[in-house]
C-alpha cells in the first residue's frame, strides 16, 4: 500500500502519533465522492482559483483530487481535497498556511464539509 508523506492538513480530527517505531498504522481507503455540491462549483471556477492560489504561492503541485479517505472497512469517510506536491518541496509550516488558504477558498464557495490534506507525491505519466 501507498503511504504518502502528509505535509499538512485542515480539520478538527486529532492526529495520534504512533507510540513506537513498530506501532500499527491504521490502513486507509480512498473512495469516490459521487454527488456533491463541489462538482458544480469545481467546474464553475473553483478549480481555476485553487490552481491560481497554488501558483501564486510557488507550490510545486503534482495533483489535486477530491476523495473520501477513511479507515479501511469503515462505512463512512470524510471528503478531502487531496493536494499532491513534489517531495521535500514544501515545509510543514508553509503547508499549514497553504492548506488553510485552500480551505478558505472552499468556505468562500459555501463548502464547509470538506477538509484539505497536502501530501508528497510524484506523478509518472505513461509514454
Outline the biggest β-sheet: 5 strands, mixed
SSE pattern, N- to C-terminal: EEHEEHE
- CATH topology call: Alpha-Beta Plaits
- Structural class of the helices, strands and pairings? alpha+beta
Assign the CATH class: Alpha Beta
The order of strands across the largest sheet is: 1-5-4-3-2
User: Average pLDDT across residues?
Assistant: 90
Report helical residue fraction.
Answer: 25-40%
* Portion in beta strands: 25-35%
The overall strand count is: 5
Q: Helix segment count? A: 2
Q: Please state the CA-atom Rg, rounded to the nearest Å.
A: 15 Å
Descriptive notes:
The protein has a single domain, classed as Alpha-Beta Plaits (2-Layer Sandwich). Helix content is 28%, strand content 26%. It contains two helices and five strands. A five-stranded mixed beta sheet has the order 1-5-4-3-2, with helices on one face. Helix 1 packs antiparallel against helix 2 (92-108).
Give the secondary structure arrangement, pairings included.
Layout (H helix, E strand, L loop, with lengths): L5 E4 L18 E4 L6 H19 L4 E11 L7 E7 L6 H17 L5 E7 L7
Parallel strand pairs: 4-5
Antiparallel strand pairs: 1-5, 2-3, 3-4
Helix pairs in contact: 1-2
Observed structural traits:
127 residues, alpha+beta, Alpha-Beta Plaits, five-stranded mixed sheet, 5 strands, globular
Amino acid at each position: 500500500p501507498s503511504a504518502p508523506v502528509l505535509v499538512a492538513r485542515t480539520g478538527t480530527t486529532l492526529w495520534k502519533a504512533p507510540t513506537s517505531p513498530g506501532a500499527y498504522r491504521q490502513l486507509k481507503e480512498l473512495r469516490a465522492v459521487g454527488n456533491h455540491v463541489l462538482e458544480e462549483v469545481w467546474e464553475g471556477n473553483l478549480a481555476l482559483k485553487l490552481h491560481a492560489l497554488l501558483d501564486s504561492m510557488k507550490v510545486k503541485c503534482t495533483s489535486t483530487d477530491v476523495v473520501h479517505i477513511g479507515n479501511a472497512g469503515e462505512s463512512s469517510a470524510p471528503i478531502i481535497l487531496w493536494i499532491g506536491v513534489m517531495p521535500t518541496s514544501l515545509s510543514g509550516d508553509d503547508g499549514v498556511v497553504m492548506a488553510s488558504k485552500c480551505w478558505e477558498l472552499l468556505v468562500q464557495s459555501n463548502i464547509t464539509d470538506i477538509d484539505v490534506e497536502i501530501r508528497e507525491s510524484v506523478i509518472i505519466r505513461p509514454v
